[in-house]
Amino acid sequence: MDLLYGDFTQAAIESQNKECRRWENLHELIGSADGKKYRNFAQGLTFEMMIGHANRQLQKMTDRYLLARDDAQPLEINVVDNYQAGEIRSTKNLSGGESFIVSLSLALGLSHMASKNVRVDSLFLDEGFGTLDEEALDTALETLAGLQQDGKLIGVISHVPALKERISTQIQVTPQTGGRSQISGPGCGKLTPV
User: Which residues make beta-bridge pairs with 78?
Assistant: First the structure.
């Protein structure tokens, strides 16, 4: 009977040691007194999801770029440039057009994440188009047109003449004296004081 009891005790001790190692591993990964490790872990998971959504949007625009988390700074993004043999580039080294395309893909990825709980039907872009070359401008406008065809309302604020020529429905804002502006276009009318 003592032998059976000893085996049972040894098995229970080994089971508890295994459970203790599991908790120690978990603590090593995400445990800290101030909660920073867990916060970084949770943010990293969300960040990874957003990058995944952004990459799906980016692939619709171009096959050149892919977004990836930075190994040294896990909450920062690098860009893999497939036209440069997979060179990994910092977002700080992107041209204006490249930054715009990457930012647009991130905004669309983030909006996709938000749309699981809240329906996102509108997207408004303010400027940034002036930094685009002709190819990047075409890519951005094709992407926005695709979103519009999916039923989203797309608003663009820009002073770029090439962009003005390509967007058929426009609301013009004309500066007036005294710090006022006048708007004109479809659906705009003059308000009369009551």
Answer: 68, 90
Count Cβ neighbours within 10 Å for each residue of 102-111 and write b for 16 or more, e otherwise. Answer: bebbbebbbb
Spell out the per-residue pLDDT of the chain, length 194, in tens. Answer: 455 555 668 888 888 889 888 888 877 777 777 878 788 788 888 889 999 999 998 998 888 999 999 888 878 899 999 998 999 999 888 887 888 888 889 988 887 877 666 776 777 777 677 777 788 788 888 888 887 777 778 888 887 787 778 888 888 888 899 988 888 888 887 766 66
Rg (CA), the chain: 27
Tell me 22's DSSP state. Answer: H
Residue 115's DSSP bridge partners are none
Q: Is 101:58 a contact under the CB 8 Å cutoff? A: yes
CA distance 152 to 92: 31
